[in-house]
Amino acid sequence: MNENSTSQVEISRRRLLGTVGAAGAAGLAIGAAGGAVAHASTADDPATALTTVGSTEVMFHGKHQPGITTPLQSRGHLIAFDLAAAAGPAAARKDAIALMRRWSVTASRLMAGKPAADGDTGIALDAGPSSLTVTFGFGRTFFGRTGLAAQRPAALDPLPAFSSDQLDPRRSEGDLWVQIGANDGLVAFHALRAIQKDAGKAARVRWQMNGFNRSPGATAHPMTARNLMGQVDGTRNPKPSEPDFDQRIFVPAEGRPGWMAGGSYAVVRRIRMLLDNWERLSVPEQEQVIGRRKSDGAPLTGGSETTELDLDKTGPDGKLIVADNAHARISAPEQNGGAAMLRRPYSFHDGIAADGTPDAGLLFICWQADPLKGFVPVQRKLDRGDALSTFIHHESSGLFAVPGGPESGEYVGQRLLES
């Protein structure tokens, strides 16, 4: 079994209590309303009985970190930390080594369905692993603070500014980034608390964001999920079965710097959806903005959800059926030199904003071997004329280097921190 697969395992001390059985999906992926329309990574997965949801386990050790190609879970937490002030880079590096050791031990135990080694809270005692994943990344500022500036990848250079950005620096970037996902809310929160407690005095929370997706078993059969705009969202995600998938998503073994071999780069954005404005549009108007039918996600040019867009097709009036500024057209890989990224986002709803509108939208997370060949060219194109941009605000942004998975006995980032 590789590190990103799920399998039935014997339920551990956090014993899974019986749940009402019904057919459901092992996981569903949602694409990015602010990045590009994607294909659900689990659209072809067989249905899974609900009684097995808690017993599925994802491996911590392996070539790649978990939480990248793992089927998207129903609950998620994103959290960024800044290293605490230390006496100097050497001391900061020493503290970072100790922290990554603690975090790696905790993550491996929790993902196996075991309690945390030190002071477990008991929040998830009755549950199995529930496909828990914990993924770690390093921000651009981490390297200078730990005396590792020479090891900082060029791919971590700041993202370019986009005209549609309305970024809050307090909720952007960070020295360290942790992504937590699980198919049970208590299991996910249990991992979040354990990671926060393990940080101790070595790092302080910079920002935290919480998200959700459709729960396993919520639909009669596996299908592409919908975002908070009601759109089928996740149709054209790269698939691991495609021959160039690894090339697009993961840093090659011969890549530079060497410690990033098998790793990937995560772009993280909080994209608020202006739902009140969106919902004032009629369904046909919404479909013109996206370029796809709302009912089933099929292109306006016809066919089913997975039918290729016919970008040259015109209607009886001679006009393009998929408008020049439709989101599906502008974000299509063939319109962006083949640029592609693996999207694993979560929806969020943080109540009502000060202006009285829903503070809701998408926690956009995309993975690629190089953000300059993945996220950046697509977002530049969208920034210049995407019809959807009228209905979204990009409110925070982060870029993180996520190293390859640790081997047995290693901790995440060991090849960087001990280089």
TrEMBL record:
Its cofactor is heme b. The keyword Transmembrane helix does not apply. Its EC number is 1.11.1.-. Keywords: Heme, Iron, Lyase, Metal-binding, Oxidoreductase, Peroxidase, Signal. Residues 224-405 form the Dyp-type peroxidase C-terminal domain. Involved in the recovery of exogenous heme iron. Extracts iron from heme while preserving the protoporphyrin ring intact. This is Deferrochelatase. It comes from Streptomyces formicae.
